[in-house]
Write a structure and sequence with these properties.
It is a single chain. By secondary structure, the chain is α/β, with parallel strands linked by helices. It has 2 domains: 268 residues, Glycogen Phosphorylase B (Rossmann fold), CATH 3.40.50.2000; 321 residues, Rossmann fold (3-Layer(aba) Sandwich). Helices cover 46% and strands 14% of the residues. The radius of gyration is 28 Å and the shape is globular. The two termini are 40 Å apart. The structure holds N-[(cyclohexylcarbonyl)carbamoyl]-beta-D-glucopyranosylamine. N-[(cyclohexylcarbonyl)carbamoyl]-beta-D-glucopyranosylamine binds next to helix 6.
Length: 838
Amino acid sequence: MNAPLEDSLTPQIRVEDDRTGLSITTLRSALADNLFYIQGKFPGTATKNDYYMALAYTVRDRLLQRWLNTTQTYRKNVKVVCYLSAEFLIGPQLVNNLINLGIYAKIRQAVEESGLSLQELIEQEEEPGLGNGGLGRLAACYLDSLSTLEIPAIGYGIRYEFGIFDQEIRDGWQVEITDKWLQYGNPWEIARPEEYVEVKFGGRSEHYYDEKGNYRVRWIPDRVVKGVPYDTPILGYQVNTANTLRLWKAEAIESFDFQAFNIGDYYGAVDAKIVSENLTKILYPNDEVIQGKELRLQQQYFFVSCALQDMIRLLLSTEVSLETFHQQFAVQLNDTHPAIGVAELMRLLVDEHRIDWDKAWHITQNTFAFTNHTLLPEALEKWPIELFGRLLPRHLEIIYEINQRFLDRVRMKYPRDLGKLSRLSLIDESGERYVRMANLACVGSHAINGVAELHTELLKKTVLKDFYEFFPEKFANVTNGVTPRRWMVLSNPRLTRLITEKIGDRWITHLDDLRKLETLADDASFRQQWRQIKQETKGDLAAYIRKKLDIIVDPKSLFDIQVKRIHEYKRQHLNVLHVITFYNRLKHDRDLDITPRTFIFGGKAAPGYFMAKLIIKLIVSVANIVNNDPDVRDRMKVVFIPDFNVTLGQRIYPAADLSEQISTAGKEASGTGNMKFALNGALTIGTLDGANVEIREEVGAENFFLFGLTTEEVYGLKARGYRPFDYYNQNAELKAVIDLISSGFFSHGDVDLFKPLIDNLLYRDDYMLLADYQSYIDTQEKVSQAYRDRENWTRMSILNVARMGKFSSDRSIREYAQKIWKVEPVPVELLQLCPGGQ
Ligand code: F58
């Protein structure tokens, strides 16, 4: 990879020694030192991984200086944002840190002078897959922006030993392989075992009178687990701010249960250790559909309790009163996964720190803010009361108390409206009783936001309607964004260089500057350069596909890409219906003058999600037939790239001509892949869903391929009674496609294989693929026509990029900071910190 930017960007460093110095000589000697002293290897016997580790430590040393300065600066009474998220999908760290430190080119030189290839070392890094998809990646983009904007922040989450599984495709089916990201050690984290906290589970609560005769409650747990923090410094771009991502690992309080050990029960003694450590073993790989698993609730409570105890300790280590907690911390709940924090903060304040209920409630409500990421009813978390009470008996009492006080206010506002009361209640009593986490989050927060304009409006009209009517002032929208550092500078060095040559580098932190490219859209030689870069980047992806999958694709064909988690609402199978339509048209008319296309898919399916796995099988089956059919050779190819993750995203987004954003209107909360594609010059084919609406507004309707029903039309059609079978019957081309799948053409004659998928489409079609089919096909035809006019396509591509300024996560974070958190930047000065001193 080429240097994204040269080192004119290197920030001023005042200390020059072996661990902080940035000269080539210092870097080269630091690399050799680390190979010897950390990896314990001579160059002759060192593996690539040894070199990667030595390099990573060389870079980490340079981060530490900034990180310690940052921590030091924050001791001075500044308000800190605490982003609570069960997932942080941060991606590989090496290159990002090189770029943010401004030493990419120097390190490359130092590495190459040692006879190594930087690219090869970069590829050694295992990415930490501590998230499922958009929600986890958003948290990572937000950490990048918080640091870049110099806003004091801590990300709190879970250090899963096994992150999202690695995906392999065998015989067309997804196979899940355990992700062992820690097996060779993680150079980016620093354990802080001395800062452990204890987290209780189970048992009962006990009511008593304290020494002053005040009525109090204490929790007598039946189990205690230790939470050990592991910190990863998150450096901002060209600033000295390095905030902390603090992930918690569960450990047993004692390595052995000595009582059990003494009576000879050796296995029993080690049992407790295993049970405790299981807590943070594995990330639940489901997206959108939640499973009410006890271990998942334990994970949630575990990391939230660790985080809140950590904040309280930080606060009490200063002179400041605990009653100012909400002035010191703004705590953002990334969906409902950390919503138990509302009850936990109340417990800590009331039971453990003896603050009275009303004051504690004021603090709590002013501390928390809640982001919702979904409209799918099946994704709303709720926990059976029995399970909840068994695990967190005191929290259940607290939730009942919060609920009673809240429902008293509801009754006051809506006397005799039992429907309202039962919908707003924190407890679902319609059948088996549940605790509703979204309701807890809404009541316990001062701000509630959706992640795109449409999504926020729909929240107010549907899933959170009653809350909106009760607390209208709490609702706000903050449209998602992505970090241009990783999603352009790092992943698209060629385009980064071209843009920077033309408009300077300010756009990297002020993405609106890309507007300056607009006039260049009319410059033929600029368009030529733009096209050339896309061509080369597509060439890189083609080479990857050939090497990994042994499929030859033509970089001159239109790269039509859909990468994201596999889900019925995201409609990868609608894309497949188009692929087969395209194929049929070619088969029926061999001389058809079409625009050659490469259809690329990627994404993981939740291991228990049968339909999603069947969709993958369908894609791969269609690919096998199409790619081996000489009749369509050179005109179409279909590729499923296995194991889509952050690293692969960095290769794929920049290589796209067409971005597929084709969810059923009203289902995708925002999407963020849509932004990464458009920022890298892909045009979008999409529905009016999530942030697509705003992307289209920004880039202009003429530069966006819109199709499909609107949300209102979806609702309307559902209400009138949707009959997918009629669409099938009335559309000969659609019928031919469906019949071809049913005939076993793609499944070696097996007519049963795809039956569940086809029956679902014909008789249910919850996501209305058949209703949108014709509009999608017609719009794809427009795409093909548009691609033929290469000059105009390039113009549209340039205009897309030029108008993507809004979708920087810097903009999102500024909005959170102003509207919700009320925090200001606190610049960090790089002081001379000598080890052992200060
Ligand atoms: C995603 N949600 C939304 N959830 O689907 C997407 O539209 C949005 O852009 C993104 O959040 C960021 O706001 C999502 O990724 C999960 O992965 C959860 C994981 C845990 C279980 C429930 C779903």
